[in-house]
Amino acid sequence: MSEIIKLSPPLRNEDIQNLTIGDRVEITGKIFTARDAAHKRMTEGLDKGEGLPFDIKGQIIYFVGPTPPRPGMPIGSAGPTTSSRMDLYSPRLIEMGLKGMIGKGFRSKEVIDSMVRYGCIYFVAVGGAGALLSRCIKKSEVIAYEDLGPEAIHLLEVENFPVIVVNDMKGKDLYKEGTEKFARR
Questions:
Q1: Which of 24, 27, 50, 150 is placed for a possible disulfide with 65 were both Cys, Cβ 3.0 to 4.6 Å?
Q2: C-alpha closest to that of 31 among 61, 69, 67
Q3: At 43, phi and psi to the nearest 5?
């Protein structure tokens, strides 16, 4: 089994340039959440000349809409959502300095091309394991768009949050290469 690579945002190209598809990573530190509605609102704000609700340079966005927390817990279930729903917005955020995205599922060619051009990684978290993933979240705070409920932007403090590299800075795609590998058998 491969070694687990530890990352702590904010990230620099040097932190992620040697990551390759299939690498297992654990993230410790602060990451942001944003789903469809938050991405749309951020883009609309940028179109109006407004800034983003947080400094995106070097950051990781987790595509999640967490459930309400149980008493005494920082967050409820926090499983990844389908990343392709953010594909329309991701290239712009990557160009602005976003270094990592966490979700599930395939990314478009445009997103992968932006990741290669500007230096960004796409990680997947295991879908269907939201309750287990929430154990790695030590703190959660809504920082923007509270009216969006679960789709508001949260600042999360995570510890050893497990992810796998699916798209690296070289444009490799684990889904594509994995499918081709097993199709040849």
A1: 150
A2: 61
A3: -65, -40
Tell me the C-alpha distance between 55 and 50, whole Å.
13
Task: Tell me the two tokens of residue 124.
Answer: 């997947």
Distance separating alpha carbons of residues 98 and 120, to the nearest angstrom: 7
For residue 160, give Cα distances in angstroms to 11, 25, 67, 170: 16, 8, 21, 25
**Active site annotation includes 39:** yes
DSSP bridge partners of 62 = 33, 102
Tell whether pTM > 0.85: yes
Model pLDDT, residue 127: 74
Per-residue pLDDT of 77-100, as tens digits, reads: 899 999 999 999 999 999 999 999
Domain ranges (residues) in the chain: 4-183
The residue whose two tokens read 């932190």 is: 15
CATH of 4-183, one of 3.20.130.10, 3.40.30.10, 3.40.605.10, 2.40.50.100: 3.20.130.10
Average pLDDT over every residue of 110-128: 94
pLDDT tens-place string over residues 120-156: 999 999 877 788 899 999 999 999 999 999 899 999 9
User: How many Å apart are CA 16 and CA 6, to the nearest integer?
Assistant: 11
Catalytic position from the list 32, 34, 39, 62: 39
- Position 143, amino acid: I
- By C-alpha distance, which of 111, 106, 127, 105 is closest to 39? 111
